[in-house]
Amino acid sequence: MEIFSENIVQAAIIGPSICMQLRDGKMLRGTWQQVVAVNHDNRARKRTVTVTITGQR
Predict the structure, then answer these.
(1) What is the rounded CA–CA span in Å between residue 51 and residue 24?
(2) Model confidence pLDDT, tens digit, residues 5-37
(3) How many structural domains does the chain have?
(4) CB 51 within 8 A of CB 35
(5) Which among 5, 35, 38, 40 is placed 20 to 30 Å from 48, CA to CA?
(6) Angle, CA 10 vertex, CA 21 and CA 4 arms, to 5°
(7) Does 50 map to a domain?
(8) Which residues span the domain enclosing 1?
């Protein structure tokens, strides 16, 4: 049986989603900011990334 407790705690602290601002089709980030995808699972699994864009054009 797998133990997920460490993975669950890590995912709960970081959270499952982010919100980014876009302007002219580019992400607005600070000089030292970056977007990083982190997998907290202990084995590889198939993942799906969903992007939803809202707002005015």
Answers:
(1) 17
(2) 777 787 788 877 888 888 888 889 889 988 887
(3) 1
(4) no
(5) 5
(6) 135
(7) no
(8) 1-30
